[in-house]
Design a protein that fits this description.
The complex is a heterotrimer of chains A (409), B (155) and C (188). Chain A has 409 residues and is of the alpha/beta class. Chain A has helices spanning 18-35, 88-105, 155-163, 169-172, 213-228, 259-265, 291-301, 332-343, 348-355, 359-371, 399-406, and strands at 9-13, 39-42, 49-53, 65-70, 80-83, 147-149, 232-238, 243-247, 252-254, 269-275, 289-290, 316-319, 375-378. Chain C has one domain (2-187): 3-Layer(aba) Sandwich (Rossmann fold). The chains are: A alpha/beta (409), B alpha+beta (155), C alpha/beta (188).
């Protein structure tokens, strides 16, 4: 068995030079390869911890740990600090201290590791409102820096793939070490074996649950990049398979292998991303595949059927537009789910009831839609929920159900 | 069902060997002149004629007897649809090519007939005083004249 | 037997006839004439009355698929067929001179069908013209019909699977909208 660990905390590099960023990213990546460094470097100022130059005025949020980078001749600062030029032992040491502080700050309900990303909390706002506006990628966010993140799959998942995939399906269901994400109301934190579904489709597919673990971090990283709206490119490397190249400026990606194969073999996965000037040529062969297709895939794989960390269980969501199902690997049930959440604000439990899908499938659907930037949020807790009765599956045969049977879908 | 081979062959008088696209009948001055000529003769042949239009198969007016431009265009479109529906019914029932279409109403009737060997249709509105037989005969004569005139002009 | 009339509308050359052929389980009825208007659409034939296809579902339901002529001069056919329709598949070819304007015009003409049932927008020929992107259509639909959720897809009219997705989404949306309305009525 190969020993690997998961990234548990996100580290944002703010206002650093490209060389400083590259060095820090490289140290972390190397450390992750060797000993399982639990840090994920992101292009975001809303990470668990931030490294910021000591001469830059910056205020961290209460949940964040701030690490000051003291450059040559810089004055020492209070709190956590690291001195330039950065070296690996000092960096790992300071990150250990940061990790310790983060551990103390965690509330009991969130005893597990956490990956934090920024989330606006307005009355009704797009959950990922910069996502679908290409023009936003024309302007580079000043706080963003180049960086990389090395992510590893859960070791048990890796072993499962080697030894138990077909012979011991129950072992696949053994809970992997998980971040303490809150499932949405009504959804089950399901680690139990699920009936076999077509893994290529979205609603209700769980057959490769353990392999999903690595996608958690990938999803968070991608969400973070999209949130920042700066022109960026990324590469997702999958061991023994291939590389997925992403160009956020063109909302496109290239992969020589079908995503379904990634799902079945995704044992070691790493993501590396960097900023690019808007005028630079694309890193994908255009038109490429739609980024929605990748986000749909990753969003449905990640988080083990629990809510994505940026989503709030008490919120309700509604589609801003339908996903483009003709380019997504979808199930018929996904259409009904889209119809439900396209017409009213729903949480996972309500979506499950409305669309006749499992709570876990509903949660996965919400995760995917959120990553794709398709959701708007209703934070009004007093809004009356929509009661669907009778559930559509039990209704006496609507045209949808009849056509579904007729067309063999 | 319908394909190009089943549609009437098109001969346009304005067509030139070097031209990449033949001129559409409703834009071809020669075809329009021929249509105006046969329609004016039509009115002389049959006093119960209220209105007549020669149109392309796809619903463009080539020439009309009446001056109401809007109505002429509308008749052309509707006659085109009717002709196509008639063709579709005939084809579906396997009863051969459509010869003519008659719409009989309380105070008059409409006869539609394709101009032979052309992708054009004659649509004529008669009042109830006319017998259907005579109206049909006259309409057939006008349609044939149109074909002859276009062919001779082209030659 | 219950009939469900679904219209296929959109500008000339958007793929309405082909879409119905992709979906129909009977040989489609077509009313095509030689196209003399090559400036608008460079294709050999054009629909001048209607296309017709159907899907029979058991002994109880028949889905009738009617394709409308794309040119406005045939708008009398639009009116005739609109009366019986419960849903609309609006096809817009992305390689048109101004496809968003085409969307505007057809939504203005057929927008009320959303109240009678539902609408789905299918953007075709994106393989030859990738711009405008589908987001632009969705955005425009939101502007023109605020508060209504109308699915927008890219689609190849020749692809039966994709056209089925469009049709099924339309029906899912129609049924869900009706169910929500019924739930709200009961609650009120």
């Amino acid at each position: 068995m190969v020993s690997m660990t998961k990234a548990r905390h996100s580290l944002g590099l703010v206002g650093l030079s490209p060389i400083e960023c590259a060095k820090i990213a490289m140290f972390i990546e190397t450390e992750a390869e060797a000993a399982g460094c639990p840090w994920l470097v992101l292009h975001s100022d809303s990470c668990d911890a931030l490294i910021v130059p000591s001469d830059v005025e910056f205020t961290a949020d209460p949940y964040q740990v701030l690490i000051r980078l003291v450059r040559y001749n810089g004055a020492p600062t209070g709190g956590l600090a690291i001195t330039a030029p950065v070296n690996a032992p000092d960096l790992i040491d300071i990150l250990s201290q940061a990790q310790e502080q983060l551990g103390k700050r965690q509330v009991p309900a969130q005893a597990g590791p956490s990956l934090r990303v920024k989330m606006e909390d307005m009355e009704t706002v797009p959950a990922n409102d910069h996502y679908d506006a290409r023009s936003y990628f024309g302007a580079q966010a000043s706080h963003m820096t180049n960086g990389s993140a090395a992510l590893k799959a859960d070791p048990y998942a890796y072993a499962s793939h080697e030894e138990h995939l077909s012979s011991q399906p129950s072992a696949m269901a053994t809970p992997a070490p998980q971040p303490a994400f809150q499932p949405f109301p009504g959804s089950q934190a399901s680690h139990s074996p699920q009936p076999a579904h077509n893994p290529a489709t979205h609603a209700g597919h769980d057959a490769h649950g353990e392999f999903c673990a690595a996608w958690d971090q990938i999803a968070v990283a991608l969400y973070s990049i999209v949130q920042n709206s700066a022109p960026a490119v990324a590469e997702i490397r999958i061991e023994n398979l291939d590389m997925i190249r992403i160009d956020f400026r063109f909302r496109a990606y290239n992969s020589r292998i079908p995503l379904e194969h990634v799902s079945a073999n995704g044992s070691r996965i790493a993501i590396r991303s960097t900023l690019v000037e808007a005028f630079r040529p694309p890193i994908v062969n255009l038109p490429g595949e739609s980024l929605d297709k990748l986000f749909w895939f990753i969003g449905s794989q990640a988080f083990h059927g629990m809510g994505a960390p940026w989503m709030k269980p008490e919120d309700r969501y509604r589609l801003r537009r339908w996903p483009n199902f003709t380019e997504l690997n979808h199930a018929v049930a996904d259409m009904r789910a889209a119809a439900a959440i396209g017409n009213c604000f729903l949480n996972a439990a309500e979506l499950s009831a409305a669309a006749g899908i499992t709570p876990e499938a509903a949660t996965r659907t919400l995760n995917a839609y959120s990553l794709m930037g398709l959701l708007e949020i209703q934070t009004d807790r007093t809004a009356a929920p929509v009661v669907f009765a009778p559930p559509p599956e039990r209704a006496s045969g609507g045209l949808f159900s009849k056509l579904r049977s007729k067309l063999g879908l | 069902m319908n394909d190009l081979a089943n549609l009437p062959h098109v001969q346009f008088s304005g067509q030139q060997a070097s031209s990449p696209q033949p001129l559409s009948p409703h834009k071809d001055p020669h075809v329009i002149a021929c249509a105006n000529e046969v329609l004016s003769g039509f009115a002389d042949l049959c006093r119960s004629l209220h209105h007549a239009t020669i149109l392309t198969d796809d619903g463009f007016e080539v020439a009309s007897l009446a001056d109401d431009v809007r109505q002429n265009g509308r008749v052309a479109s509707m006659a085109s649809s009717m002709q196509a529906l008639g063709d579709a019914v005939a084809k579906d029932l396997r009863i051969g090519a459509t010869e003519y279409i008659i719409i009989a109403a309380t105070t008059g009737y409409v006869i539609q007939m394709r101009v032979p060997d052309n992708s054009m249709v004659l649509a004529a509105h008669f009042d109830a005083a006319e017998t259907v037989g005579k109206a049909l005969s006259v309409a057939r004569l006008v349609a044939t004249n149109m074909r002859t005139l276009i062919s001779s002009e082209a030659a | 037997m219950t009939e469900h009339v679904i219209l296929f509308a959109g500008p000339m050359g958007a793929g309405k006839t082909t879409a119905i052929e992709s979906l129909s389980e009977i040989e489609t009825i077509r009313t095509e004439a030689i196209n003399t208007d090559r400036e608008t659409a460079d294709k050999d034939t054009t629909t001048v009355a209607l296309d017709y296809g159907e899907i029979t579902v058991g002994d109880e339901d028949k889905v009738r698929l009617y394709g409308l002529p794309g040119q406005r001069r045939f708008d009398f056919m639009w009116t005739i067929l609109n009366e019986r329709a419960v849903g609309l598949v609006l096809l817009v070819n992305n390689d048109a001179a101004d496809p968003i304007k085409d969307l505007d015009e057809f939504l203005e003409e057929f927008g009320e069908l959303h109240e009678k049932g539902g609408i789905v927008v299918c953007v075709t020929r994106t393989d030859v013209a990738p711009i405008p992107r589908i987001d632009k259509y969705a955005e425009r639909v939101r502007e023109l019909m605020p508060g209504r959720m109308i699915p927008v897809f890219t689609a190849d009219a020749r692809n039966s699977d994709q056209m089925r997705t469009c049709l099924m989404s339309l029906i899912a949306n129609i049924e869900m909208t009706a169910m929500i309305a019924a739930s709200e009525e009961r609650a009120a």
